[in-house]
Every structure is written in C-alpha cells, then in structure tokens.
Design goal:
The protein is an alpha+beta fold. About 50% of the residues lie in helices and about 20% in strands. It comes from Schwartzia succinivorans DSM 10502.
C-alpha cells in the first residue's frame, strides 16, 4: 500500500498540535512542575513577520511562525511512527 505525502503532512501537523496541547495541559500539573517548563518552552525555528497587502477592497495580512516545543516534537515523532505503521 502506498502512502501519500499529503497524509504524512496531515499526521505530522496533527501530531505537533496534539503534542503541544498535551504539553500545555500537563504544564499545570503540580507533580510535573519541576521539569515541565523545559518540555513546554517554545524555540523559534522559523518566524516570518506579518506582511500586509492593501488592495483597497480587501486587506490581507499574512505571517507564519514555526515555534515547536519538546512535547510537540515528541508528538511529531509519534505521528511519524504511527504513519509508518499505518
């Protein structure tokens, strides 16, 4: 069975989002307060400043930032593992 690139990208994006959300939820647990700040600290990898285009009818503002934390990277690794097993 052949896997598509779009499905792999979907797995990676969902894994990153779920990993980041899980890290955010676990950051409030008192038992994990000692090392959770290291797992939830974001590291800027790619940051494109917002660009605004005014077309006098529509005003578009576009920007992109990729700032993963360790938990989202774990989510990406788990998503890739699940994708390979799928």
């Amino acid at each position: 069975m052949r896997h598509s690139t779009g499905l792999c990208v979907l797995f990676v994006v969902v894994g990153a989002i779920l990993g980041g959300l899980l890290g955010n939820l676990l950051s409030n647990v008192d038992a994990l307060s000692g090392f959770m700040p290291y797992l939830t600290e974001s590291y800027p990898v790619f940051d494109m400043a917002p660009v605004t285009v005014n077309l006098y009818v529509i005003k578009l503002t576009v920007g992109l930032a990729f700032m993963p934390n360790f938990m989202s990277i774990l989510g990406i690794v788990l998503a890739l593992f699940l994708f390979r097993r799928y």
